[in-house]
Design goal:
Length: 335
């Protein structure tokens, strides 16, 4: 899914007021410290009309370099890159999803966040950037399996994991061999996960994705794509499979719901981001038909942008209690 970009002015603290309380990125970016982490960032930092410093968020090279600096300063990741044209997501929003998932586990576990490598999380569509596993492991010690249909993304994700000691033994990256499948083919029969997460493509076609990127470009104040002097529309990048899927978000999540029911005993909470509120009624209907025992919608906000995640489980109360006793009994108290 292509995140909505922030303009230089809106990347200030005011745009981060709605971030999760544990999110490390709630305040303004300290560019002095970030440049100290990654000196190459200095070339992209400039004063704004508001008297502070920022980067041009319409410049994909600037966005990528900022991400490198954030990952190094806050998460101890020394080696990180993505191939040209691949999704380079805003880290604050990705971190928010992780923190809300930690809260979801805590709500299921008497207020205790289950931490450590015993907690296993499946990232559907890990991408070349590997942001969710990085943040989830560094914040809570969780162990991840990341899947993707793109061999280039899988290869890059494996390279990031292999080249950072902070991720040793924490992330297993797998190729999803069938593009239309979600869990089938990558989840082993006896394998269990405490959580799944996903940031699905929400456009229904390449034309729709391009139209969305033109609107983003205009919102950034650089005029329509293709205009003289216009900045690149794909400032956060994105391959076709990252941006759109036949039938759009609603069809993708219908398939996810159907496949989740097949492995209903392999996971406690299935979760996904949902970009369009119009998608929710159909997803709720599918989950009711599939006999999910609990469905929750959690709102997340970053400035004026509102997003949400939907979580569901098929475990009844007895199965949930047995799961907690077996897997979460050694969890730590949240700070």
């Amino acid at each position: 899914m292509t995140p909505a970009p922030a303009s230089p002015a809106s990347s200030s603290a005011a745009d981060k007021e709605g971030l999760h309380p544990r999110n490390r990125h709630r305040g303004r970016y300290d560019f002095t410290q970030l440049v100290a982490s990654v000196p190459e960032l200095a070339a992209f930092v400039a004063p704004t009309a508001h008297g502070d410093e920022s980067i041009d968020f319409a410049d994909p090279a600037a966005v990528k370099t900022l991400n490198r600096a954030l990952l190094k300063q806050f998460y101890g990741i020394d080696n990180w890159d993505v191939p040209a044209g691949y999704l380079t997501p805003p880290i604050p929003g990705r971190a928010d999803y992780i923190h809300y998932l930690a809260d979801l586990l805590a709500e299921s576990n008497g207020g205790v966040i289950p931490r450590g490598r015993g907690i296993r999380v499946l990232d559907v569509g890990v991408g070349a950037n590997t942001i969710f596993p990085i943040v989830g492991h560094r914040e809570y010690g969780w162990r991840f399996v990341g899947t993707d249909t793109d061999p280039v993304a899988v290869r890059m994700a494996k390279q990031i994991v292999a080249s950072n000691r902070a991720l040793t033994g924490a992330v297993d990256v797998r190729l999803q061999p069938v593009a239309a499948d979600i869990f089938s083919g990558v989840v082993k029969p006896a394998e269990v996960f405490d959580l799944t997460l996903c940031n699905p493509p929400f456009h229904a076609s390449a034309a729709e994705a391009e139209a969305g990127n033109r609107r983003k470009n205009q919102n950034l104040g650089h005029g329509p794509a293709g205009a003289p002097g216009a900045k690149p529309a794909l400032n956060f990048g994105g391959q076709p499979h990252e941006l759109w899927t036949p039938g759009g978000e609603a069809t993708f999540l219908w398939r996810m719901a159907e496949e989740s029911a097949i492995i209903r005993h392999n996971c406690y909470w299935f979760t996904t981001l949902v970009s369009k509120k119009e998608t929710l009624p159909g997803l709720y209907k599918s989950l009711k038909k599939l006999q999910a025992t609990d469905v929750r919608t959690i709102s997340m906000a970053q400035g004026h942008k509102v997003s949400r995640l939907v979580a569901w489980t098929f475990l009844d109360e007895a199965a949930q209690q047995a799961w907690r006793a077996k897997r979460w009994s050694g969890a730590e108290r949240p700070a």
